[in-house]
Design brief:
- With 203 residues, the protein is mainly α.
- It folds into 2 domains: 61 residues, no CATH class; 133 residues, no CATH class.
- Helix content is 52%, strand content 8%.
- It has a 3-stranded mixed β-sheet.
- Strand 1 and strand 2 form a beta hairpin.
- This is BTB domain-containing protein.
Length: 203
């Protein structure tokens, strides 16, 4: 997202206000079939995903409607994070809980390969570095940032070489989110059952 904090009134009018005029596109989110109408230029400016979808030769570009299906794994997570960023940019808070719920369902419910079920990063199996980098552009305290950080707690506490070791160091915002979720998690655990419950601290 471009930094416009130092822009003049003229620059602001050209770079931002113009985005609030023009054609709209529709986003349909399945399986509930919820449909949202949004400004095309505003949506595409800060999302490579939606830009490629609506300005290329894809079906969505011709029909100006995108249907976000329930699909497994990485692509699904990236899609809902992109939607969260757009909603955050437009200060639409009503979508936050639903988007976070969808991400949690993917991380908890989709089938993790047998070989990965016992390792310390199983809650982050479907998460990637790109997901982390995308999410930190959301506002501080955003529920999607909290979900990604909470999913990283077990690996962070149990393995110094956990999946997002580098991201915690390179992206201080993500590191702070993880530490905050660690603090919350430890505060909720009964000391005598801490080891037992740690496996599902995220859930």
């Amino acid at each position: 997202m471009a930094d416009i904090s130092g822009a003049s009134a003229t620059e602001f009018a050209k770079s931002v206000l113009s985005l609030y005029h023009g054609p709209c596109v529709k986003i349909r989110v399945n399986p509930d079939n919820n449909e949202y109408t949004v400004l095309k230029h505003l949506l595409c400016r800060d999302s490579k995903f939606f830009s490629a979808m609506f300005t290329g030769e894809f079906k969505e570009g011709q029909e100006q409607i995108a249907v976000l299906e329930e699909v497994e794994g990485i692509v699904s997570v990236q899609t809902v994070i992109e939607l969260a960023r757009f909603a955050d940019m437009c200060t639409v808070t009503s979508l936050e809980s639903e988007i976070a719920r969808q991400i949690k369902e993917i991380l908890k419910d989709y089938l993790v390969p047998e070989c990965a079920r016992e390792y310390n990063n199983r809650n982050t199996y479907f998460l990637t570095s790109e997901h982390v980098r995308s999410a930190i552009f959301l506002s501080k305290g955003h529920v999607v940032r909290q979900v990604l950080a909470a999913a990283s707690v077990v690996g962070y506490l149990r393995d110094e070489n956990h999946k997002f070791e580098e991201e915690v160091q390179v992206h201080p915002l993500f590191g702070a989110d993880v530490l905050e979720q660690v603090r919350k998690a430890l505060n909720t655990l009964n000391v005598t059952h801490r080891e037992e419950k740690l496996n599902w601290i995220f859930i």
